[in-house]
Input
Amino acid sequence: QVQLQESGPGLVKPSQTLSLTCTVSGGSITTSGYYWSWIRQPPGKGLEWIGLLNSAGNAAYRSSLSTRASISRDTTKNQFTLQLSSVTPEDTAVYFCARSLSYADVVTLNYEHRGQGTQVTVSS
Output
C-alpha cells in the first residue's frame, strides 16, 4: 500500500521560501507511469494543483505559480520536495502530496493516493 507523508514548517514569514517534503513508502517514485503532485487547499476554497514530477523526474507547474514553484526529488530517500518562493498570506493553505495514474487524472484533481496534508500559514 502506497503511503505519502508531508513534512515541513507550519509557519513561514512573508517573502520567505516555503519548503515541504513528501516521503513515499510502499512504492518507488521512479516507477514508470506515475505522476507525483503537490496540491493545496486555501481556507474556504477548493483544491489547487501546484505542480508535478513524472517518474523520469521531469517537472510541470501551474502557470500562475511557475515563476515561484520548484519541485525536485531525492530518489535515494524516495522523497520529493516543493519549494515556493516569495510567499504571501495568499499562500496559506493545507498542502498535500499525491500520486496519480495519468496526466489527465492530475489536471482533473483525481488522485489514487494522497497524504493527509500539512497546514502552512504565511504570517509575520
Q: What stands out?
A: The longest helix spans residues 103-107. Residues 30 and 116 are 22 Å apart (CA to CA).
